[in-house]
Amino acid sequence: MTSVSQTKRSAKPRAPRKAPAPAKVRRDKAKAVAPKVGFVSLGCPKALVDSERIITKLRAEGYQVAGDYQGADVVVVNTCGFLDSAKKESLDAIGEAIASNGRVIVTGCMGVEEGRIRAAHPGVLAVTGPHQYEQVVSAVHDAVPPLHDPYVDLVPPEGLRLTPRHYAYLKISEGCNNRCSFCIIPSLRGDLASRPAASVMAEAERLVKAGVRELLVISQDTSAYGLDIKYAESMWRGAPMKARFLDLSRALGDLGAWVRMHYVYPYPHVDDVIPLMAEGKILPYLDIPFQHASPAVLKAMRRPAHQEKTAARIARWRAVCPDLAIRSTFIVGFPGETEQDFAFLLDWLKEAKLNRVGCFKYEPVEGAKANDLEGLVPEEVKEDRWHRFMAVQQEISRDLLAQKVGQTIDVVIDEVDDEGAIGRSKWDAPEIDGSVFLNGETSAKAGDMLAVRVLHADEYDLWGERAAVS
Ligand code: SF4
Fold it and tell me: Within 10 Å of residue 159's Cβ, how many Cβ atoms?
């Protein structure tokens, strides 16, 4: 399931991530001469994980990470190529890196369009595509040879990450077997390729041992995990473990960190995971990009699920796990979407009462099958539907959040400044969902888990005060 647009167009957009400044890096004589690589990581969490893998490999070879363009010997730009607007942003980022540094290597999803990149920026040193870690590293070697001291910059066992210390993305598979008509991810990233369960678990365990308190499970289609490898067993903690969504959820839940599931399709076997949420093994949170509700639009989108059955499934899930939060994204103005289809979507939304929802106006993607569809929706109609959609959802969200006032909830702190702390509840994922504000709470630290009494709510966020340290 694609997440590119969700991340890039969330209600709380963030600037492209740059790698952490080298201030945190231990300085010694060897490091003073180590070559430095700058990183700009655009796009979805999957691309971010790719960047982390590249950085981990380079750090293992003695490279340093530069915190700004000027301090870098070469800059790697990890691009997003999902939407035309994302491609434009990628080209702009490449241009900025060339103007600021001059020595630029391009990788990521847009790398499959090398001709277009070179036409816009003839000065790039190398262009590689998604998941071509070895090629990126080799391009860095060509641009700035590594030091020949194998003892320089030992990498911590959990690798190097671009996220804060207390949460981490855990990528369980690459690619996707679906063929949604608006999406070119399968042509960019290929069919589903799941990691062995033991490999995922070993990475998750290393992260938790290194202080990670929240694991965000990502892929293009998380509930399809293991299908391609026929749910193959691998040895984990001395016993065979199947590469299956339920088994993985249970094992991750045993690690003692929050486990949050992203990009889950509502396949029937997802039902089996809901009791784990009710027991508190994994977070009562599902990120399901429904995209629409009208059967006609879903058919045109070639989506693999049918919403009329999904509404009933959600009701059953909530009967098992009443505090389940569902986050989703929708597209309005898809080619052929009639006013009737849109009204169906609004009615479905009112019935489903999803907790967190993002809505995008349809935008054609170069190379996508949806471009052949008739019935283009005029921009002003898309705009109007978007506003109507958001108004309905805001009311739902306001009502749901108001029910939290007076409750004491667990909150993980993401950042602290002079005015107080900002955290999240178990119903909110970082960057895309809402926050819990603790005004005046300056003694907390990022990563702390606090019990918080909720005092106030609006349509997006909560405000509260510390009840007791949990
Ligand atoms: S084809 Fe569909 S399910 Fe697969 S990545 Fe694209 S939007 Fe997601």
Answer: 19
d(CA 301, CA 370): 7
Ligand 1 atom, smallest distance to 221 CA: 3
pLDDT digits (tens, 9 = 90+) for 230-282: 999 999 999 999 999 999 999 999 999 999 999 998 888 999 999 999 999 99
Q: Which atom of ligand 1 is nearest to the CA of 186?
A: 1
Q: Which ligand 1 atom minimizes the distance to the CA of 177?
A: 4
In this predicted model, what pLDDT tens digit does every residue of 50-67 receive, in sequence order?
A: 888 788 878 877 788 888
The pLDDT, as a whole number, for residue 344 is 95
Q: Pocket of ligand 1, candidates 80, 185, 262, 329: which has the most ligand atoms within 8 Å of its Cβ, to mutate?
A: 185
**Structural contact between residues 258 and 235, judged by C-beta atoms closer than 8 angstroms:** no
Q: Whose CA is nearest to atom 2 of ligand 1?
A: 180
Centre of ligand 1 from the C-alpha of residue 302, in Å: 10
How far is the centre of ligand 1, averaged over its atoms, from the C-alpha of 276 (Å)?
26
The two three-digit tokens of residue 188, written as one number: 């960019």
State pTM to two decimals: 0.73
Predicted pLDDT at 155: 54
Ligand 1 centroid distance, CA of 298 (Å): 13
DSSP assignment of 65-106 = EESSSTT-SEEEEEE--SSHHHHHHHHHHHHHHHHHTS-EEE
Burial 349-370 (b: 16+ CB within 10 A, else e): beebebbbbbbbbbbebeebbb
